[in-house]
Structure formats: C-alpha cells, structure tokens
Design a protein that fits this description.
alpha+beta; 7-stranded antiparallel β-sheet; 7 strands
Length: 156
Amino acid sequence: MRLKKRECNDEAFFDEVFEKAEDLALAMKAGDYPYVVPVNFVQEKVNDVRRIYIHCAREGRKIDLLREDARVAFMLHADVEIDREHSTTAYKCLCGTGKAAIVEDTEEKGRALDAIAMRYQARCHVPARPEDIERVAILRIDVESLSGKRRPRKTA
C-alpha cells in the first residue's frame, strides 16, 4: 500500500466494515478476465476464523465458475462520502481472498439463510422452511486474507 497512513488491518476495523457494508463484490476467475458480481452476505466469526455466507441460485455462471476454481477475491466498503469541494472521497474498505465451497449440509445452509435474512431484515420465514433451504444454494467463503484501508473525512 502506497500510503501506509491509510492502512488499517486491525480486527475491530474489519468487524466494523463487515457490519456496515451493504453488499460484497465477489470476484471469480472466468478465463482471461475476472467475473465480479455484487452479492448479499453475512459474516460469521468463530475462534478468529472468518467465514462469509452468500445465497444464490443452485445453477448459473457463479456456481459454474466456482466449481472450476474455488479461489475468490472480494471487496466491501462503508461510510463512503464524496467531498466535491476537496475533490476527494472518505471511505472505509477492505479487500480479501478465500476459498469458496457450496454448502451441502442442510443445517449449515439453514443457519446461513436465517443469518442473511436477519441481517437484511428480509420478509421471509425465519427459521427457513425446508423447501426454502432446498431451493437455494449457499456459498461459504473461508477467508484466507484481509487488508483494510480508510480515508477519514476532512474536517474544516
């Protein structure tokens, strides 16, 4: 990172960005160019191990790409504020890498689906009904690396 003063790699910062971010940009290998898609997500942290859960359709490009190569990258951002007067932007962001897996365990799928629904205050059944769990795919990203960066808002 060029400007070390903006680097922020402590766990509290990561937790804050994961909590505040509205969505997650997920990047996968797709031939010569990456495929990036915004997704709803929820993070789970157990014994300092971070996992990210995403729900998606049971078939499609995302699933096909992850079956070919489970390595992913992702980015989240929060507290973005454009300062037009100073031609700059305040933000908090983090980038990470990990390995994705399609969750097959029904209990884990149900817990993840419930956690996503609660995070986004979705108007769906919680706990998830068996037919809802069967209808969707749940992806789990086992996070391998994180790096954070922030640019605080300019004060007058």
